[in-house]
Design goal:
The protein folds into three domains: 3-63, no CATH class; 81-182, 2-Layer Sandwich (Double Stranded RNA Binding Domain); 189-470, Lambda Exonuclease, Chain A, CATH 3.90.320. The chain is 45% helix and 12% strand. The chain contains 17 helices and nine strands. The chain has helices at 3-8, 10-30, 38-50, 60-63, 91-95, 118-129, 154-162, 178-182, 190-197, 208-215, 222-230, 239-261, 267-279, 285-305, 367-388, 424-442, 456-469, and strands at 81-86, 132-138, 315-319, 325-327, 330-332, 335-342, 347-354, 398-406, 416-421. It is globular.
Length: 470
């Protein structure tokens, strides 16, 4: 295959890769907690065909005819698009930090590599801009992650100093202020945004994570939910969350093997499974070794000192996606790490596994921990609603207690358990809140939350306003 042929068929290749990824993930979900075999794949394909279910990636943004293509300026050479957005038009973004030496070196000195020259940077920027056929947008930002002011890109400074502009009665557009005046928050047409979002909400189900993201004022609340859970803006891999995923998967493997063979596997099995699960994460060599060491240490303690919490009849990683859970018009979904039944009184305890910092009470002193525990508490109450409104457990079981198991709370001894007795008042309030938030989402109503403080008090005020306004 020639490079030209690849460029001409990039959308088809991207679609193929996306469909393959979706197919493999669906097949792996079908063969839970065990290795994926050819026989299982064939069985899965036949089952999907019998029920006329798609085997491709049906996500709206993947199948859309007018999709957005993300690429580097180098990769865009020789291509053309109706509209182009050139992002990060800052000095650091296009010229680099210049941190190789503390002593500045003139650009024309022969000791500097040719690719580092200002002319090459300018040519590359020109390439990026000239990919646009009709519309070109240059975007930047004023402050970096540390709150430090960002230096303007020199190419654009030169332009604003020399180009004469007609005065704008609405915006001050003196030549020296051109870039600042254009660097405004984009105005989004609400009708166009709604028309774009509605296809993404087909068959939408609300999870505890989605609810918490919508309510979390510290991260932007509804705007954060929209970007993270609907538009699925890409984020860089988080080593802590990848480690937590591997730890969770390993415990699920422990319970699945226990149920399958009716014999508790040994510690070596647990360590091997963790290494395999961790190896599937996107970690650097150092991150992998560090997390492997931590995981082996805490898994060993869990196995040696906490097996009294491992029961063969517990439900692990129970998925409510097909349980038709409804609260009014709201459709709910989610997975619960562990469900423990008490058949004597038809009560259940729902448990969520947590890696990272442990907590011994629900009222921490610092604001960051208060935000986390507020979400943890809401998550456990959400789980109660999942269970009690599900097809399988409705009218048969009730959830009285929610628990957090802090898997890394000790290197030797029983792990920290934080329990919550879930009362009816909290459950009823969350039930009403779920209906309101779900309706807001389905109506593409994502209110601004700039007026609220970025702490638990701000979130509670926002929740109060939602409950009052309905």
């Amino acid at each position: 295959m020639t490079y030209k042929h690849y460029l001409e068929n990039q959308p088809n290749f991207r679609s193929l890769i996306s469909n393959l990824r979706s197919f493999l993930q669906s097949a792996q979900d079908y063969q839970k907690n065990s290795l994926l075999t050819i026989d299982a794949v064939i069985e899965f394909v036949n089952l999907m065909k019998q029920n006329n279910l798609p085997l491709i990636d049906t996500w709206q943004l993947q199948q859309a005819d007018q999709a957005v293509t993300l690429m580097t300026a180098h990769k865009s050479k020789g291509m053309e698009f109706e509209t182009v957005f050139v992002v990060n038009c800052s000095k650091v973004g296009w010229l680099g930090s210049g941190g190789r030496s503390g002593v500045p070196v003139p650009f024309n000195l022969p000791i500097m590599a040719e690719s580092d020259g200002m002319d090459d940077k300018l040519r590359l920027f020109y390439v990026a801009m000239t990919r646009a056929r009709d519309n070109l947008y240059l975007t930047s930002y004023q402050l970096d992650d540390k709150g430090k002011e960002v230096e303007q890109l020199e190419f654009l400074q030169d332009v604003v100093e020399t180009v004469e502009l007609e005065p704008d009665p609405e915006i001050k557009t003196e030549p020296a202020k051109l870039w600042q005046s254009l660097n405004l928050r984009p105005i989004i047409n609400p009708i166009k945004e709604r028309n774009f979002l509605l296809p993404l909400l087909e068959n939408y189900k609300l999870s505890a994570t989605h609810l918490n993201n919508f309510l979390d004022i510290s991260r932007g609340g509804p705007k954060y939910f929209k970007e993270t859970n609907l538009l699925r803006f890409p984020t860089s891999p988080n080593p802590a969350s990848q480690y937590g995923s591997a730890f969770h998967k390993t415990l699920a493997d422990l319970y699945a093997t226990y149920k399958d063979k009716e014999v508790l596997p040994d510690l070596d099995f647990l360590i091997q499974r963790f290494q395999s699960n961790l190896g599937k994460q996107k970690l650097s060599s150092k991150q992998f070794q560090d997390k492997l060491s931590d995981g082996n240490k805490y898994l060993t303690n869990y196995y040696q000192n906490n097996l009294d919490r491992v029961l063969i009849d517990q439900l692990i990683e129970f998925d409510f996606a097909t349980q038709n859970v409804r609260i009014g018009e709201a459709i709910l979904t989610g997975k619960i790490d562990k469900i423990t039944k008490d058949s004597n009184n038809s009560l259940m305890t729902v448990t969520d596994f947590k890696t990272g910092k442990k907590y011994s009470k629900w009222t921490p002193s610092d604001s960051y921990s208060a935000i986390k525990l507020d979400k943890y508490r809401r998550q456990l109450i959400f789980y109660k609603l999942l269970v009690e409104n599900s097809r399988e457990f409705h009218n048969q079981w009730q959830v009285g207690i929610g628990e957090l198991e802090f898997l890394e709370s000790t290197e030797q001894g029983p792990i920290q358990i934080l329990s919550l007795v879930i009362n009816d008042e909290e459950t009823q309030q969350l039930s009403k809140l779920i209906e309101i938030v779900y309706a807001r989402i389905m109506n593409c109503d994502f209110p601004s939350v700039e007026q609220y403080s970025h702490d638990v008090a701000g979130t509670n005020t926002f929740i109060g306003d939602l409950l009052r306004d309905g």
